[in-house]
Amino acid sequence: MTDRKIRQISALLIEVYNGIMQVEDKYLRTTQFRDITVKEVHTIDAITMYDHKTTTAVARQLRLSPGTVTASIDKLVRKGYVVRLQSKDDQRVIRLGLTRRGRLIYRAHQSFHRQMTESFLNGMDLEQVDIIEHSLLNLQTFLQIADEKGDSNEND
């Protein structure tokens, strides 16, 4: 692969990432969820409607420190999107759940991503979709390795 092609794809990745963030932000500003940021929506997405995760589990998924996620969750609790639930199994463990409002934004965000993905894959055959999936898995692996290296550099 040529250096020019790599630069071109790199620029496209940056442009697409920034575009997704801008569109998500614009969408939020036109809904009843004007009081929430895109980062907070991604925290809600990590909490999910289906599991009652701990703050540590959410932090791990978002690749953020537990302290950073705790601050975000505190805001989401104040805004009425998230509740803290005491574990039935272990009273010391606090789990996270979504309020009705949190579930609404969760579903809206899931719908947005589904529409975006369907649009992205529109007109592709299964072989092309498999290539896209393989490429995204390569990117995900790179990000995981880079994240782990960053963690080990912080400990030096």
Question: What's the SSE blueprint?
Answer:
Blueprint: H1 3-29, H2 38-47, H3 55-62, H4 66-78, E1 82-86, E2 94-98, H5 100-121, H6 126-154
Antiparallel strand pairs: 1-2
Helix pairs in contact: 3-4
Helix fraction, binned, reads: 55-70%
Corresponding CATH architecture of the domain at 43-122: Orthogonal Bundle
Quickly name the level 1 CATH class of the domain at 43-122. Answer: Mainly Alpha
Give a short account of the largest sheet: 2 strands, antiparallel
Low-confidence stretches: none
CATH homologous superfamily (4th level) name of the domain at 43-122 = Winged helix-like DNA-binding domain superfamily/Winged helix DNA-binding domain
Write down the overall geometry.
globular
Number of strands: 2
What does this structure look like?
The chain is mostly helical. It has a domain at 43-122: Winged helix-like DNA-binding domain superfamily/Winged helix DNA-binding domain (Arc Repressor Mutant, subunit A), CATH 1.10.10. Helices cover 70% and strands 6% of the residues. It is built from six helices and two strands. It has helices spanning 3-29, 38-47, 55-62, 66-78, 100-121, 126-154; strands at residues 82-86, 94-98. The chain has a two-stranded antiparallel ribbon with strand order 1-2. A hairpin with a 7-residue loop joins strand 1 and strand 2. Helix 3 crosses helix 4 (66-78). The longest helix has 29 residues, at 126-154. The chain is globular, with a radius of gyration of 18 Å. The two termini are 35 Å apart. The model has no long low-confidence stretch (mean pLDDT 92).
